Structure formats: structure tokens, C-alpha cells
Amino acid sequence: MADDTSTPPPLRVLPDYLPMEIENGNVVIPRDFWAVMSPNKLTDDWAVKSVPLAPFFELSAIDSSTKVVNTNHETGENTLAVRKAWLSKVRKIIFGKKYRDTVRMGWNTGLCNEMPKRTGGEPSLWGENNSVDFSFRGKTPTTMEDVTNILFGDEVIKMVKDGHFAAAFGLLFKWGYYLTMEGCTSTWAEVATENYIRTQGFRVVLGNRCVGEKHMSSHGWHRIGRKMATNSFQTTLRRKQEKYWGVKLLTSELIRNKSKENTSVIDLRDYLPLKVIKEMSRKDGTKFKYVTFNAGTNTKESVLGQKVGELVHWAKDHDIGEEEVKLVVTSRKFANFDMNVGRRIILNQSRKTILWR
Known about the structure:
- Helix 3 (97-114) crosses helix 8.
- The chain has 2 domains: 22-95, no CATH class; 98-196 and 218-294, no CATH class.
- Strands 1-2-3 form a 3-stranded mixed sheet, with no helix packed on it.
- The protein contains 12 helices and 6 strands.
- Residues 1-6, 119-130 and 348-357 have low confidence and may be disordered.
- 42% of the residues lie in helices and 7% in strands.
- By secondary structure, the protein is mainly alpha-helical.
- It has helices at residues 44-50, 80-94, 97-114, 144-151, 154-161, 165-176, 188-200, 220-245, 274-279, 300-317, 322-329, 339-348, and strands spanning 22-23, 26-29, 204-206, 247-250, 263-267, 287-292.
């Protein structure tokens, strides 16, 4: 039987946020101030360290005449009751519905900013030679609802059922995951967070340094904002892929890792904007695993049909004729053939043949 007087495990060592750094009357919040990605998981040991900064989040602590924050305000007292109130404010107010709505609108703005601004002419098609952008056959979604409606509407569902997985997954990634991708240069979360801090009247600025031992490449508040804006949206995308497509892109799983599911590998390079490709920092680049549901019904013939069908769709998207594809597939060198090389070969040979039906 365990000894009831045994020593409990030590608390996680948190950095000290004192002495405070003040800039133009505002407290500078270090990158690692929030300590964890989920505000609901902040604990009393964090509150002990952080509560002295609480008055900078409290309008009543600001002197109405001098606009100076009273650092001795009651909201900054280090008592259990005050710390509980501070934690509640962080969870329900600072990171409450208003902030979540703000960063979701920021995400919508971020997607809208990536859409091509056309005044006329033909919409872009697929492939590097057609300048792949963030639109799709003239459609330019600018909200999460728009993205969901297009991805799981009749047109894209038919693409998937016809075996054109790469094109559908390309839409999914550039609309649903690019804005939260490591390396993405869009500042939608930063702009939304700054706007929220200003409209709430918080007397804080976001700093660039970490006070703990762990380095963070971006501010924790921005990271939390990205997560809060897109968590439920990306969960919806995953569920609907299984329901409507019968396949699902595994955006966070490395190709080399073993999977219990029936997975295949697909390259989305030809269906992503060059901007997205350049900003990718993932080890597998544009290659992803995807899982096929109800895989027990698959046969070698059906898998071959899907693989060949994908090549045919790719060729059509690049205006490559039937004869060029046949020339490559029936080549005597095909036994030792690199399919990516083959794609480049038929692309270079394809300018003369009319697209087959």
C-alpha cells in the first residue's frame, strides 16, 4: 500500500515573469507567457507566477486621468481567491468567444487575401504551366463555410469518385491547412490578435523574447489563436472526407511512419500554388499519406485502375494527349521508369495533341 505521506511529484518549473518589462505604459508579454497551448489547462502554479500582470488586462486598474495602470490593483494580489478569478478571466474572457470569433474572422480574411484579384479573362487551371493559384474553376472561397460547401459539393465529390484524388487533396490543403502550416507567411493570426488586444483595451504588447528555457519561434498567443480559429473547422474537414470522399489526407503523418490504416502516398505538387510549395517546411514536402476507407473491398485491379486513372487525370489537366501517354506507358524503358520523370517527358511532348475524352 502506498504511503499517504509520500512526497508528491514536483510541479512543472515555470519561468518568472518578474520584473515586468514596461513599454509606453504597457506590459510586454513574453512569447512563452501562456505556458501551454490550451488556456483551460493553465494551473494555479502558473497563476502564482503571472497574477502580478493581471491588472494590465483589467480596465478598472487604469487611472482615468493619467491612463497609467495601477500595478498594486486588487486584481494582481497573490491570494488563492484572486488567482482563481484570474484563471477564470483568462479562460472565459481573454480566450473566450469574442477572441475565438475574432481569429476566425481573421482566418477568413487571410484566405480572402490569397485569392486572385481578377478583372477578367479565364480562371486558372491546374499545373505549373497554368499558374496554380488559390481559386478553383473560377470559385474563390473566402470563408470556412465556403470551403466546406465546395469541397463536399457535387463537383469535387465527383472528382474524388472518378479517382482524381490529387486535385481534391490539393484544394483541401491549400484552403484548409495552408494558413496554419508551419512556415506560412500569412499574418492573419497576428493581425487578428493585435486588433483584439486593442479593442479590449488590454494594456499589453507582445514581446519577441522567451523568459523560460524553451525557445519559441513565434508568440504563444498567436499559436493559440491559430488553434482556436481552426480546430473545429479542421475536425469537420477530416470527418467529411471520410463520409463524402471515402479517402482522407493525413496532413500530420510522416510517410516513413508505419500506419495501422490502409494508406497510400500521393504527391500534390502539381495542384498547389508555388507560394504554398515554397513555404512548406515539412520533411515530406508535397508528398502525403492518405487513407482509403472500406479498403477491404479493394483488389489489385481496382488499385491499378486508381493509379492509372490518377495519371490520366493529371495528363488531361495539363492538356496532354492520349498518344503521348501511350507512348510513355508502352515504352520498353518503362520497367525502370521514374513516373515523375515520365510526367515531365510527356509534358514536354504534349503541345500538339488535342485532349482526349
